[in-house]
Amino acid sequence: MRILIANLTRGGFSGGYIKYLRELVPRLARHPDVETFELVMPPGTHGRLGEIGAQAVEWPTGCSSVSRWLDARARALRADVVFVPTATLPTVATPVAVMVQNMEPLVRPIAGNAPIEAVRNIGRRLAAYRAVTRAKRVIAVSDYVRDFLVDTWNIPMERIGVVHHGVEAAPYSTVPHGLSAADAGQFIFTAGSIRPARGLEDVVGALERLGEAAPTVVIAGTIDARAENYARRLRESIERAGLMSRVRWVGHLDPAQMRWCFEHAAAFIMTSRVEACPNIVLEAMCYGAISVATRCRPMPEFYGKAAWYYEPGDSAALAKMLRELAVLPANDRVALQDTARRRAADFSWQATADYTVAELQRARLPRDG
Predict the structure, then answer these.
(1) How far is CA 23 from the centre of its chain?
(2) What residue numbers bound the domain in which 91 lies?
(3) How many CB atoms lie within 10 A of CB 233?
(4) CA angle in degrees (0–180, nearest 5) for 231-226-196
(5) What does each C-alpha distance from 359 to 28, 162, 202, 266, 284 come to in angstroms?
(6) Amino acid 367: pLDDT
(7) Is residue 192 part of a domain?
(8) Is residue 272 within 8 Å of 310, Cβ to Cβ?
(9) Which of 36, 165, 219, 359 is the most exposed, fewest CB within 10 Å of its CB?
(10) What are the angstrom distances between the C-alpha of 148 and each of 103, 125, 258?
(11) Are the C-beta atoms of 325 and 301 separated by less than 8 Å?
């Protein structure tokens, strides 16, 4: 099979998406059912993908019609399928498979977002709807995404395949700047891009309720563009509550630093309100972190029994769970950590590649000659 992977974005790639490409593309290159493939990127972006980016093809700067250029590229490659992982539909003659991996524009386009971001989310929602209604095949990254497409957008279930992302441990760990080995076991960890859908106000509310018993919370992640007001409100809430000494903002962490935090945190908190396939959840389980998470789908789909759950916005319930975790017997902690690692073993990048190839084969058309 011949595959053209088209990254139809304006150049913005989340850390999770970069990791997805870095893990998927080399496995596609080695897959026995893939004869050849080509990775297409926006101008000036291939450097962000390291070694695989060096092999990518960029469409020309100032290209008047990316779809027309992509159509010619697919014909030259004699591609069986054009795979677009970003829920955008190009106008090409080759069959197209799209992937839906961002649910915020679909289910929460406005809530808490700056006006310009809300407008952009609505545009992303419209683009995703056009893509999934017209593409030959749709890949959903979770049952939650598939159910939304079927129940809300009436996409026939037989046109959708579910392919979870995988997880793989970093080869080593490094203590992040701002922490030390003495902090091991003494902090609660949370990570991800800082934006309204992150739900970090739950953590602030829980700390307020815990008062003097509040643990140190380490918050990793960078502030999304146009989410500065949300981050400012969080900091102001923390300051008003007199909790500045209990919260450490450590910014972006590399994979080795993330591993250290997951392995040495007393617990990991997943407060997000909307996810498609939460890579951070898979990482938390991979490193044996004891997790407390919202019941928002798809968290239970991935965690299964490897997390304690609370209702989003219920900071009192979150505070109660943190109290219980603080006195949890060592044997019970070990059992929870083992459960998490076993659950993580159900998600591999090789399985992601294999299932992706199977879905792309369903989208292909027989080639003449």
Answers:
(1) 13
(2) 2-166+349-363
(3) 15
(4) 50
(5) 13, 9, 38, 40, 28
(6) 45
(7) yes
(8) no
(9) 36
(10) 9, 13, 31
(11) no
Residue 300 sits in a domain of what CATH number?
Answer: 3.40.50.2000
Domain count of the fold of the chain: 2
Enter the pTM of the model: 0.93
Q: How far apart are CA 97 and CA 87, in angstroms?
A: 9
Any idea which residue has 């995988």 for tokens?
Answer: 166
Q: Is residue 135 situated within a structural domain?
A: yes
Q: Tokens 């059912």 correspond to what residue?
A: 33
**Residue 16 CB contacts under 8 Å (≥ 6 apart), including other chains:** 279, 280
**CA–CA separation, 233 and 362 (whole Å):** 47
Question: Mean pLDDT across the stretch 209-229?
Answer: 92
pLDDT value at 368 more than 60:
no
| CA-to-CA separations, 327 to 306, 322, 333, in angstroms, rounded | 18, 9, 10
The residue behind tokens 């893990």 is 23
Q: Which two tokens stand for residue 311?
A: 């209702």
Co-location of 280 and 355 in the same domain: no
CA distance 341 to 361: 32
DSSP state letter for 315: H
Asked if 299 and 278 touch (Cβ cutoff 8 Å), the reply is yes
**Whole-number Cα distances in Å, 307 to 189, 282, 292, 336, 343:** 14, 12, 5, 8, 11
Quote the tokens at residue 309: 């759950």
Q: At what angle do helices 15-30 and 279-286 cross, to 10 degrees?
A: 80
Q: For residue range 242-283, list pLDDT tens digits in order.
A: 999 999 999 999 999 999 999 999 999 999 999 999 999 999
Say if residue 11 is in the same domain as residue 151: yes
Give the distance, in angstroms, between the CA of residue 347 and the centroid of all CA atoms in the same chain. 14
Give the residue ranges of DSSP H helices in 98-227: 104-107, 115-134, 143-151, 201-210
Non-local CB neighbours of 228 within 8 Å, separated by 6+ positions = none
78: tokens are: 């004699």
